[in-house]
Amino acid sequence: MLSWMKYLAILLFFGAIIAVSNHFFTLQKINVTTIQEVDGLLRSVNIGELRSTDHATLQRETMLQELLLSIASSQKNHQSDIRVSYVFLNKDGQVTESEEEIAGVQVKVDTLNKDGEVESSSERRLILKEG
């Protein structure tokens, strides 16, 4: 009689591990997908912008609007809150505030739980203009 209870307890234990793991893997997948979508969108928008203008500078406001719009559209179907952090980078990968030196952006998307704590995080460095 005790043997079937032992197997039930083991089965429930492994079932709980699988359920919890699935939750965290899903959150990470959402963040990675968001970053990948942002990467493709920013590359196409800003490379097209560079080709259509005579000057070779990336517009900070345009890049920021496209970045946030892309993240918002990727995350709109998910129930979690997100926090987005970003910095603009120069051609050497250093943080810059000068619009003439902007060559890329580094983006970090955090998925937050109901208490505002980070559940999952994904970070990506996008260099859109070489040297």
Can you put this structure into words, describing what you see?
The chain is of the alpha+beta class and 131 residues long. It contains two helices and three strands. Strands 1-2-3 form a three-stranded antiparallel beta sheet, covered by helices on one side. α1 (2-52) runs antiparallel to α2. The radius of gyration is 21 Å and the shape is elongated.
Task: State the main characteristics.
alpha+beta; 2 helices; 3 strands
Strand and helix map with partners:
Elements: H1 2-52, H2 60-75, E1 81-89, E2 104-112, E3 118-127
Antiparallel strand pairs: 1-2, 2-3
Helical element count? 2
What would you call the structural class? Answer: alpha+beta
> Measured on Cα atoms, how large is the radius of gyration?
21 Å
Uncertain spans:
none
> Strand order of the main beta sheet, please?
1-2-3
How many strands, which pairing sense, and closed or not: the largest β-sheet? 3 strands, antiparallel
- Sequence of secondary-structure elements: HHEEE
Give the CA-based shape.
Answer: elongated
> How much strand?
15-25%
Give the termini distance in whole angstroms.
73 Å
Q: How much helix is in the residues? A: 40-55%
Query: Mean pLDDT, rounded to whole units?
Result: 77
Total strand segments: 3
